[in-house]
Amino acid sequence: MRAMLELKNVSHVYVSAQEASLAVEGLDLQVTPGEFVSLVGPSGCGKTTILSLLAGLLVPSRGQVLIGGEPVHGPSPRVGYMLQQDYLLPWRTIRGNVLLGPELAGRQSRETEEAVERLLHEMGLSGSAARYPHELSGGMRQRAALVRTLITDPEVLLLDEPFSALDMHIKLQLEDLVHHTLRRMRKTALLVTHDLAEAAAMSDRVVLLGSRPGRIRHIFDIPAELRALPPMQARREPGFQDIFEAIWAELEEGEEGGDA
Ligand SMILES: Nc1ncnc2c1ncn2[C@@H]1O[C@H](COP(=O)(O)OP(=O)(O)OP(=O)(O)O)[C@@H](O)[C@H]1O
């Protein structure tokens, strides 16, 4: 099967007037259509750099970055981004925020409006569509941000710590909702997170990176019986602790080896 996301021997150097620093080196990764993959690793190992390369916000210093088999030449509507901060426009209602993407793309239609209402309903936001962002809780705002990302129908979602600013119980609920929605829509997703349990509960595979420079240390396949479950349920399975501890042990080994 052709990869939806592909990094081929990718390295990236940040260059400033004072110095050049090698952020990631020799990355090879393929993510198949509909797969959910997480990137974990110590601070500074290049997780955000990888998302920026895939989003077309950075050009790799070496190697190739491909989406759907095509080289990335800049931001593309095939790719949606969800971040820790929701970046909802405070002067627009939730519905107005969600409709911004289609408006800018000149794709306003009855179908789009119906799709917005459907997604708002699925995210439990129908009753809040006419409210402004400051009137909503953090979890509701992130659900609105997810609707805004999904309404442009990207094939790929890049998720940069989208749950990290939320209270634990809201975070667990949102993990389930995002997992369910992306699976149902058969989206390909790459999640950056510092939370190893979140990565293990939500993903098909977990990519562990080492740092200085960022390199792939190990790729963990999540057992099929866990993958079939919603994240909250997967966390309660006996096999969950084993995979969590395997990732943790590998992360610690890297740090002891001066990798962090
Ligand atoms: N704009 C930049 N200019 C110079 N160096 C940068 C820049 N952005 C990132 N770096 C460096 O590149 C490396 C990778 O950074 P990146 O932000 O991708 O890591 P990360 O794994 O996302 O970190 P964190 O987990 O702390 O968010 C780090 O050493 C960082 O200092």
UniProtKB/TrEMBL annotation:
Alphabetized CDD domains for the sequence: ABC_NrtD_SsuB_transporters (cd03293)
GO molecular function terms listed in the Swiss-Prot or TrEMBL record: ATP binding; ATP hydrolysis activity
InterPro entries given in the database record: AAA+_ATPase, ABC_transporter-like_ATP-bd, ABC_transporter-like_CS, ABC_transporter_ATP-bind, P-loop_NTPase
SUPFAM superfamilies: P-loop containing nucleoside triphosphate hydrolases
One Pfam entry name: ABC_tran
Name this polypeptide is given: ABC transporter ATP-binding protein
Swiss-Prot/TrEMBL keywords: ATP-binding, Nucleotide-binding, Transport
Family annotation (Gene3D superfamilies): P-loop containing nucleotide triphosphate hydrolases (3.40.50.300)
Species this protein is from: Paenibacillus sabuli
Domain ABC transporter per the UniProt entry, residue ranges: 5-236
